[in-house]
Design a protein that fits this description.
The chain is an alpha/beta fold. Among the domains are: about 30-70, no CATH class; about 75-205 and about 260-284, von Willebrand factor, type A domain (Rossmann fold). The protein contains seven helices and twelve strands. The chain has helices at about 55-60, 95-115, 140-150, 160-165, 185-195, 235-260, 275-284, and strands at about 20-25, 30, 35-40, 65-70, 75-80, 115-120, 130-135, 175-180, 200-205, 215-220, 230-235, 265-270. The strands form three sheets. The protein has a six-stranded mixed β-sheet, with helices on one face. Helix 5 links the parallel strand 8 and strand 9 (about 200-205). Helix 2 (about 95-115) packs antiparallel against helix 3 (about 140-150). InterPro entries: DUF58, vWFA_dom_sf.
Length: about 280
């Protein structure tokens, strides 16, 4: 069964791009474009079609002036994904399926701008990162998706460090795709390493973990990393404590991410591109 076509979203970077190649984002280079930048001497930009007669007459040096425009440029778009066992849990919608929806949506949104897409999957420190680098073609993405569908997430720990060397050197748009169920020190180190990039933390949570709990009854929990099982007798007081713990976790994540200039986006049970659309519109 073929997966449904992904929904696309529009995104915007916080600063103009200085990349050489033309694309769909604000750029700093002067070349072909529609956004007026400044007047330049005709000898610097020999294009008589853009001569500005008024500016030329007003120039005291008597040289012809042409209108110079800013060239729209490209960006690199990167998904930095958590591939620990907790991201492989099943629920109303399996977490790995949600991740796949996100990867396909982000990648094809990048293609629509002419941007390059890269995927870096992080597992245990002893594992090599999953890599899809500098992808511009749908065929490469589809082959990667087929491999992803056959892969089982089993890493019992998470190490981001091996992935950092694969990130672009120039400023890029980096999506962190994870449930963020790891310690604050590890997240702080990661955000420090990504400081030169535009970072969007995508927090994937399952409603059945905290929102859809019963007031009374037995609930089985399994630690995805260790595989250990625990049975809890759910009652209103315990349910409220779990809700408060998740609310506190959400607040802590927001505070830590915001301290590095990044606003986390919380996605529950699904990847919704329209949430990302509103996210970038609110930042603009």
């Amino acid at each position: 069964m073929n997966p449904r076509p992904p929904q696309l979203f529009q995104y915007r970077l916080s600063v103009p791009s200085h990349r050489l190649f033309p694309g769909g984002h604000r750029g700093l280079r002067t070349n072909n474009g529609q956004l007026f930048n400044r007047h330049e001497p005709l000898m610097a930009h020999p294009d008589p079609r853009r001569i500005d007669l008024r500016a030329s007459v007003l120039d005291v040096s008597g040289t012809y002036k042409v209108r110079a425009y800013r060239q729209p440029s490209v960006f690199d778009v990167v998904v930095l994904a958590d591939m620990s066992a907790s991201m492989g849990q099943t629920g109303q919608t399996p977490q790995q399926t949600i991740m796949l929806d996100g990867i396909r949506s982000i990648a094809q949104s990048a293609f629509s701008y002419g941007d390059r897409f890269s995927f870096i999957g992080c597992g245990a420190s002893t594992e090599k990162p999953w890599l899809l680098g500098n992808c511009r073609h749908l065929g490469r993405l589809q082959a990667f998706v087929r491999q992803w569908q056959q892969h089982r997430l089993t890493a019992t720990s998470l190490c981001w460090q091996p992935a950092l060397s694969h990130l672009p050197l120039q400023r890029s748009l980096v999506f962190i795709l994870s449930d963020f169920h790891f310690n604050a020190a590890q997240l702080k180190t990661l955000l420090q390493a990504l400081a030169r990039h535009d970072v969007v933390p995508l927090v994937l949570w399952q409603a059945e973990d905290y929102l859809n709990l019963p007031n009374w009854g037995l609930v089985n929990y399994q630690d995805a990393e260790s595989g250990s099982m625990r049975t809890l007798f759910m009652r209103p007081v315990l349910r409220q404590k779990i809700l408060q713990a998740f609310a506190q976790r959400r607040q802590n994540l927001q505070q830590l991410c915001r301290s590095y200039g990044n606003e986390p986006l919380f996605l529950t049970d699904s990847f919704n591109p329209m949430q990302l659309q509103r996210y970038f519109l609110s930042k603009a």
